Amino acid sequence: MLSFLATSDLPFLVIGRAGMDLYPSPPGTRIEEATNFSAELGGSSGNIAVALSRFEQPTSLATSVSNDAVGRFVLNQLSSYGVGTEHIHTIDGDVRTSLALAESRIENQQTIIYRNQAADFQMNAGQIEAIDFSQFRALVVTGTCLTLEPSRGATLLALKRAKAAGVLTVMDLDYRPYSWQSSSAALEVYQNAVDYIDLVVGNDDEFGHMSGSYAEGEAYARSLAQRNKWVIYKRGPEGSLAFQPEGNAIQTGIYSVTALKPIGAGDAFLGGLLASLSRAERFETALLQASACAAMVVSRVGCAPAMPTLAELNEFQAAHTADQHPIGEK
Fold first, then answer.
1. Strand-pair category, 19-24 with 37-42
2. Sheet of strand 230-234, all strands in order from the earlier edge strand to the far edge
3. What would the mean pLDDT of 4-32 be, rounded to a whole number?
4. Strand pairing partners for 59?
5. Which contacts of 309-318 are long-range, i.e. CB under 8 A and separated by 24 or more positions?
6. Are 21 and 42 a contacting pair, CB within 8 Å?
7. Phi, psi of 207 (to 5 degrees)
8. Counting beta carbons within 10 angstroms of the beta carbon of residue 185, is it exposed (0 to 12), middle (13 to 18) or buried (19 or more)?
């Protein structure tokens, strides 16, 4: 199923949050001590869309933004990166586009996200019904989209319609416990969504939540592969495991860099992976390129502006070697 990415010239469709990120300047400055900030595009889905676009993969974003200066900032930024905005709705009223303050530092790093009455959670079924999914090669969603209604129902509808149209479906689990009423409520919704997913990406905590026990996360990831899904199980500094429907497991390492911040790596990983597969790279190669993208982003200021181009990725890999768990079957 993943080979479809390389045989289609249709665009990607990413669903979910895009917002404004404010970074204290210069790097290393704490938020409470800052007098200068740089404003950048952020939000997990917005970042993934930019990552794909930076690799010259045609990509559109579907979401909702507020009808105010911050919403217009997001639309302008997406357009500047080449991301299509035709499926983004602007909403009047008291809803607001997501705003985040994030420090460019590793030790005691703070990220504060303002999500009260978030505009992206207002994405509804009507917006999804207006999309012709047959015009896309893949649908990419994140778990954040499932947190609240009407976004939850709209996202599940999008997955169902995409599957019916024969479109590859991809999900970054992106589980954030503080966003949910309860762990059990989140689990029920996630397991419903996963039924419609072809490629599932998450870390050890997220798969641990899906299984009901941290210790059973890897076993659960393997079980999804037995249900004819591709699964990538990220393990931080220990690299990642990829479970394929035919039963093989591939183990890959990471690239060590001097990190400037801990955020943005997951978005870069997924965008880089999908772009690599779209260039017809072998799955093992795509996994390493995804890891390289993640390493590059954590060593740069910002998330969306830190996403590499293909030339930058090639230069990075020529100068660095994955330092743990070389490619191989496990």
1. antiparallel
2. 84-91, 59-66, 12-15, 138-142, 168-172, 199-203, 230-234, 240-243, 249-252, 328-329
3. 96
4. 12
5. 309/54, 309/55, 310/55, 310/56, 310/275, 313/272, 313/289, 316/255, 316/292, 317/288, 317/289, 317/292
6. yes
7. -70, -30
8. exposed
Whether 90 maps to a domain, the answer reads: yes
Pairing of strands 59-66, 84-91: parallel
Q: Which of the 8 DSSP states describes residue 313? A: H
**At 211, is the secondary structure helix, strand, or coil?**
helix
Residues 91, 305: Cα–Cα separation, whole Å: 26
Q: Of 136, 325, 119, whose CA–CA distance to 235 is shortest?
A: 325
CATH number reported for the structural domain that contains residue 262 in this entry: 3.40.1190.20
Residue 325 predicted with pLDDT over 80: no
DSSP string, 73-94: HHHHHHHHTT-EEEEEEEE-SS
In this prediction, residues 259-277 reach a mean pLDDT of 97
Q: Give per-residue pLDDT as tens, 229-260.
A: 999 999 988 899 999 997 789 999 999 999 99
The pLDDT value given to residue 2: 82
109: in domain: no
- H/E segment holding residue 171: strand 168-172
Number of domains in the chain: 1
Residue 168 pairs in a beta bridge with: 138
Please, which pLDDT band fits residue 307 given cuts at 50, 70 and 90? Answer: very high
Angle at alpha carbon of residue 78, lines to 165 and 101, rounded to 5°: 115
- 31 domain residue, yes or no: no
